[in-house]
Amino acid sequence: MWIMSTPFDSSTDSDDGPRRRKRPFASKQRQPALPVPASATLECRFSREVYVVIGIWILTGLGFQISAPFAPRTNSIWEMTAICTVFFHVPNLFFIFWVERIRVWADENGLRLRGLWNTRFIAWKDIEDYGWKLAPANSKSQMTGAVLFIRGRRKPKHLSRNLTRFDELLERIAQRATNARVSSWQPLEARDEGEWPKIFSYHDVSGWKLFASYLGFAFTLCGLILAQVFVSPRLSGVNITWNSLVASGKIGLLAMPLLICVTYPLMILARYPAIKAARRFLEQRIIATREGLTFERGDRQEFVAWGDIERYELETPSGNFQFPLGIIHTKRDRYEFHTGIVKGRELRALICYRATNATTSKWMHGTGGDADVLGGPNSMWRGGIVGVGPRIHHYHTRTNRIMLIFGALLAAPMPYFAIYGRYVHGVWKAPDIEDYIMTTIFLLLLVPPTLWGTLSYWYSTVEVDEAGLKQRGIWGERMLSWSQIRSAKFNGYVLEVRGEKTVLRIGPVADQTHLIEEIERHSGIKIQRVQDFKVDA
After folding, report:
1. Dihedral sign for Cα atoms in the order 112, 114, 115, 121
2. For labelling alongside 109, which of 15, 18, 234, 397 has CA 20 to 30 A away?
C-alpha cells in the first residue's frame, strides 16, 4: 500500500456542474429541517456572545484608565482618560450602536437588511446566487461565511454567522430564492466555475525560523518595557538607573521581560516536534480536476476518482501539539495530506462536495482518533473499553488543560501589584487604591472562569445512552430523555440543549462533534449550528 503524505503551510460531473444534482449522501448528513412558514417574519439580530465581548472590552478600558502608569503630575489622569477614550470608550459606544442597529428580517416578499444608516430590501426574485465562502488561507477563523449575490449589484452581500436564528435564515433563503442558480447552500470554491485544475501544495515553514521570529518578538516587547521604565522618565526630568532601584523594584522590573523571554521560546519548542513531523509532506502536491484527485510526490503519481472515495476523516498523530491529518480511504489504499496545506479548507470542501459515493458527509475525527482527548478512546466509555457501556464525553482534553494553565498563569502575578506596588515612570510606588482596584478587576476577569473551568474539568461529564442525555456537573446531575428535547443549538463552543423545563449547557467536551451527531440521531431534531463545510441536497 502506498501512503501519500503532504506538508502544512466514479461519478464524473459534467461541465454544467453538480449544483442541482441529488446528493447521494444527503440523507446521511442530517434529517431535513421543518419548513419555515412563508407568512412568518423571521427576525435575526446579533447574539448575546457579541455583548459579552463588548463588556470585556469595556472592563479592559476601565482597568487601563484606573491603573494609568503615568508620572504623578496634575494632568496625568487626563492624559490616560484621553487615550482610553480614543482606543476603548469611543469604539465601545460605536460597537454597541452598531450591534443594536443591525437587523435582518425575512418574510414572504424578501429580505430587509438594516445597516448603520439605512435599510435595504432584497426581493427573493433578485437573489441570483448564494453559497458558502470559505475563510482565506491566512485566516485564523475556522468558520465559513454565507454570501448572497444580488441582481444589479457588483459586490456580494455577506451574512454574519453571529446572527441569532442563523440556520433558520439560511433555510428560508434556500426555500424562497427560487430564481437562484442553486437550490441549496454549497461551497462556492467547490463548483465547476473557475480555473481547473486546482493545485494544492505546501509552504516550507522552518521551525527554527519560527523560533527566531518568536524570540525577536519577545525581545522587542522587553525593549519596550525597559524603555518605558528608563527612557520615558528622563523625558520628564526624572533620572532613573538600575542602581537606584530597590530589590523589590528590580524584581518587578525583570518579572515581565523574563516571563516573555521564557514563554515564547518554550511555546515554539513545544510545537517544534509537530512542525518537524509535518515536513515530510513538503514534497507532496495534490491536483484536483473534475474527474478526481492526483497525488504527486516526486516522480510518483496516484489518481483517485471522486467516485472511488469510500470515506474521509481527520486523524491526529499521537503526541502533544500535533496537527491533524486528512485521511482519504478507497478500496485499495489510504491517502494522507496535512491539513495545514495551502487552501486546505478549500481542498476539504471540494472532497466533501464531490465524493458523492462516500459513506461520510463531513470531516470528523474517527472514533477515539482525536489525540486531543486525554486518556485515549477508552476513557470515553463507562466500561473502560471502546463500545462497552454508555459513552462518556468528558472535559479531559489537551486544549482545555492548556487554557486552564494559561488562565492560572495570567492570574497568578496580579496580587503582586496590591502587595508590593508598581512603577510610575520608573519610580517604585507603594500600593494604593488604584492598585487594589486594578488587581480586583483583573482577578474578577480571570479567576472565576479559571476556577469554574477547573471544577468542570475534574467533575463534569456528559453521558449518552439509549435513554437520553445525562449531564453531571458541579451542582449535581440533570437528565433529558430523547423525547423531552425540544430544540438545540451550537455556537461553535457551547452546545445548548433545551427541554420543556430543563436546559443543558455543554462546553467544549471531548469528541463534541460525535455528541452533536448522537443528539440529532436520537432526538430527530436538527441542531442549529454553523458547520465547517455545509453541503446540502
Report:
1. positive
2. 18
Predicted TM-score of the model (pTM):
0.64
Tens digits of residue pLDDT in 286-303: 999 999 999 999 889 999
Mean pLDDT of the chain: 78
Check pLDDT > 90 for residue 246: no
What is the band of 21 on the pLDDT scale with cuts at 50, 70, 90?
very low
C-alpha cell belonging to residue 290:
473534475
The answer to whether the CB of 286 falls within 8 A of the CB of 295 is: yes
Distance (Å, rounded) from C-alpha 347 to C-alpha 353? 10
What are 475's three cell numbers? 451542582
Contacts of 501 (CB under 8 A, 6+ apart): none
CB 224 within 8 A of CB 390: no
Query: Which residues lie below 8 Å from residue 60, measured CB to CB, with a gap of 6+?
Result: 88
As beta bridge partners, residue 473 has 476
Amino acid type, 17: G
Beta strands 461-464 and 468-473: pairing type?
antiparallel
Over residues 7-28, the mean pLDDT reads: 36
Residue 341 in grid coordinates: 496545506
Spatial contact of 46 and 164, defined as CB atoms under 8 Å apart: yes
Q: Is 294 exposed, middle or buried (0-12, 13-18, 19+ CB in 10 A)?
A: middle
428/417 Cα distance (integer angstroms): 11
DSSP secondary structure of 322-358:
PPPEEEEE-SS-EEEEETTSTTHHHHHHHHHHH-TT-
Are 64 and 92 in contact, with CB atoms under 8 Å apart?
A: no
φ and ψ at 462, to 5 degrees? Answer: -130, 125
CA distance 67 to 287: 56
Q: Using CA atoms, how far apart are residues 173 and 184, in angstroms rounded to an integer?
A: 9
Beta-sheet strand order (sheet of 110-114) = 42-44, 103-106, 110-114, 119-123
Cell of 184: 441549496
DSSP β-bridge partners for residue 293 = 288, 304
Is pLDDT at 122 greater than 90 in this prediction?
yes
Strand order in the sheet with 495-498: 487-490, 495-498, 503-506
Q: Cα(454)–Cα(317) distance, rounded to whole angstroms?
A: 26
Residue 25 binned pLDDT confidence (cut-offs 50, 70, 90): very low
| CA 293 to chain CA centroid, nearest Å | 28
Across the range 306-311, mean pLDDT stands at: 94
480, 497 Cβ separation under 8 angstroms = yes
Give yes or no for residue 75 having a pLDDT over 70.
no
- For 406, residues 6+ apart whose C-beta sits below 8 A from its C-beta are none
Q: What is the DSSP letter of 85?
A: I
Would you give the end-to-end CA distance of the chain in angstroms? Answer: 34
3-state secondary structure at position 278: helix
Considering only CA atoms, which of 215, 224, 219, 225 is closest in space to residue 254? 225
Evaluate whether 292 touches 357 at the Cβ level (below 8 Å): no
CA proximity to 338, closest of 200, 211, 206? 200
The pair phi, psi for residue 533, each rounded to 5°, is: -135, 115
